[in-house]
C-alpha cells in the first residue's frame, strides 16, 4: 500500500481538525461566561501552554521582526473572529453560530486571490455562491429572536476569510507552533486593550476578561483551549501548506454538521430548529462534497503560494 501524498494527508488532517472544531460551538454554549472573557481565557490558556515548549521560543527567535508583526496582526483578526463567533452562539444557539461560518466560503473565494496572490477562480466563486441558498434556508429556519446572532455570525465568517487568506500567504515562513504562539498572544493582548471599547459598543459581548471562571467553566475552558484550539490550530497550519485556503474553508463547512449533531445529542437544540434549517445545512454539505470532484490540482512554482488558514480560526 503506497504512502499518502502530502495533499491527501493534508485533507485527512484538516478533516480531523474540523471534527475537533465541531466541539467548540458546544463548549461555547455550555460555558457560562460571556463572549469576551470566554475568548480571552481560551487564547490565554493556549498561549500559556505554548510558552512551556522550548520549540515555541526557538521558532519565535527565528522569525524576522517584520514577519512577527504580520503574524501579530493576523492574530488580532483571529481574536475578533472568535469574539463574534461566540457572540453569535450566545445570541442564537450552537447550531446557528456554527452554520454561519459557511458564509466564509464566498468571502474566501473573493478575498484569497488578492491576499494570497493567486489567480481568481470563477469555479470557486460559483461553489461559494452555491452555499448561499443553504444559508438563506438556515436563516428562514430559525426564530426571529436569533436573527441578530446570524448577522454577528456573518461578520465572524468575514474575519475567517481574512485571516485564513493571510495565513495562507505567510505561514510557510515560520514554525507552526511559533506562529500559533505569536498570533494568539497578540490576540490576547488586543482583547485586553480593547475590552472597554468592546463592552461599550457591543453590550452582548460585555464582561471583564479578568473574571475568574468557576470550577465547571474552568474545566470546559481547558478542554476548549487544549483539545479544540491548540491541537487543531497548529495541525491546520502544518496541513494546509498543501491546500488552498478555499479548499480548506469548504472542508470547514462540515463543522456545522458535527456541531448540529452534537447540539442535538447534548443540548437538545432540535426543538428550536425547523426542517428548513436542516435543508439549508444539506445544501451547504453538498457544496463541500462537490468541490473535490470539480477541482483539479494545480502545480505551484513557489512555496509561498502554499499555505494555510485556520478554519475556521484558520479561526474557528
Work out the count of structural domains. 1
Question: Helicity level, as a percent range?
Answer: over 70%
Category from helices, strands and their pairing: mainly alpha
Shape, per Cα inertia axes:
globular
Mean pLDDT over all positions: 80
In DSSP terms (H or I, runs of 4 or more residues), the helix count works out at: 13
Low-confidence stretches: 296-316
Report the strand count: 0
Largest sheet: none
Helix-strand pattern, N to C?
Answer: HHHHHHHHHHHHH
N-C termini distance? 34 Å
User: Per DSSP, what share of the residues sits in E-state strands of 2 or more residues?
Assistant: under 5%
Radius of gyration: 18 Å
Keywords:
316 residues; disordered C terminus
Short description:
This protein has 316 residues and is mostly helical.
Topology:
Layout: H1 6-30, H2 35-51, H3 54-61, H4 65-91, H5 94-100, H6 104-115, H7 122-140, H8 147-170, H9 176-201, H10 215-239, H11 245-252, H12 255-267, H13 275-294
Helix pairs in contact: 1-5, 1-10, 1-12, 2-4, 2-9, 2-10, 3-9, 4-5, 4-8, 4-9, 5-8, 5-12, 6-7, 6-8, 6-11, 7-13, 9-10
Please provide a written account of the structure:
The structure is a single chain. The chain contains 13 helices and no strands. With 316 residues, it is an all-alpha fold. The chain has one domain (13-296). Residues 296-316 have low confidence and may be disordered.
